[in-house]
What does this fold into?
Amino acid sequence: MKKTEMEIYFYNTLTRKKERFTPLVAGKVGVYSCGPTVYWNQHIGNMYAFVVWDVMVRFLRWTGYEVNHVMNITDVGHMTSDKDTGEDKMEKGARREGLSVWEIAKKYEKQFLSSLDFLNIKKPNVLSRATDHIDEQIDLAKKIEKNGFTYKTKTGLVFDTAKFKDYAKFSGKKLEEMEDGSRVEVDEEKKNPWDFLLWVTNQPEHVMIWDSPWGKGFPGWHLECTAMSVKYLGEKFDIHTGGMEHISVHHSNEIAQSYGAFGAQTVNFWMHNGWLNLKKGKMSKSSGGFYTVLDLVKKGYDPLALRYLVLGSHYRKGLTFSLESLDVAQKTLDKLRRAVESWKKRSGEKKGKTSREWKDKFVKVLSDDMSSPELLSLVWGMVKSDLSSQDRLATLLDLDEVLGLDLKTSEEEKIPQEIIDLGRERDVVKKEKDYKKADEIREKISELGYTVMDKENGYEFLKKKRVIVKKRKKC
It folds into this structure.
């Protein structure tokens, strides 16, 4: 499909309306996504955002655009409040587990990447860590300072929001509503409570500290996203994504920083997702009541059932999650897979063609601010249509480039013999209570692209996003 044949509309938080999306450079799209703070497990509420933006990136690529997708990994500077309050989340995580901040970052970055694999989320072109871009953040802060948008206090280098008259415009709040609230130590030198730190210098005990023109310290959380987005996408790029919780503080501060450094808005489209909530409220780490993707896998769910469930929600409205709704998604996804398998058998060696009529329908609903619930409705309409089996198969597998449900993978996919042998060996050493050896074998299986999960009646091999069961033979 030619890009010139379609009109794509996305909701732009900057203007509070749906607008036609036209990339700055014909045929190319630059996307920056706010990534995880790797101080703890990313739960399924966090992963909701990464699924919906994966669908958007897949859609743009499916329609012919070359997409450069950049995502940050926050491993320093994010306080327990999203503002300047509290302690660095990385140090909190390190203290919680008796590990170094570097070990915590490595551990939970690995957990995040594993969750991406389970949910069949394509990794960004660039995955950039904040600690690998300290020089870029210092250079950005120096530009902002040179342009007269900063002042220094006992806490560090502060952005002077009074110099940016539109500071509160993006959030839609009054400035008084953007105050920091309670602080561990109030910085009375701040001109305004909502002024924010670019570089922190008043925490000498902080483990992660670098030299800077303002003294030894570390960057404020907001600085990294502006520094890394412009490094990889330029001073003007197409789309910046994130959760709606970022609008009033983090993204407002990014916009202010960009104005301070470059005198202009760096982003054309700001796009924000709603939340995945539990019936009792927002899923959060602070409450302790959350599921990770691996938790769901341990309960016997295919992680792609969660992806299907997310596709059934509009990204701006979010999703109320329950295990009951996941049960329904699992059954519906299994039904779709059975349809695919039946079409494969009927088609044999005969190849089908993507239906232009149905593809146009799919593109139309996705072009209307990514209406994925309507898309799923269309999918089932196509499944029940009078298209030939081979054409339905070709059409659905083509669309699966956007859905990401891995429908091309056969239910009869075989586990490599090496993995089976390692599983058996681990089973033996576990019975012998050699748990150290069992853990070593588990790690080897993981390096080969599989995870082994113990069950009451045996164990399961998990290959990234697909679950393949291997039961023990009865003696």
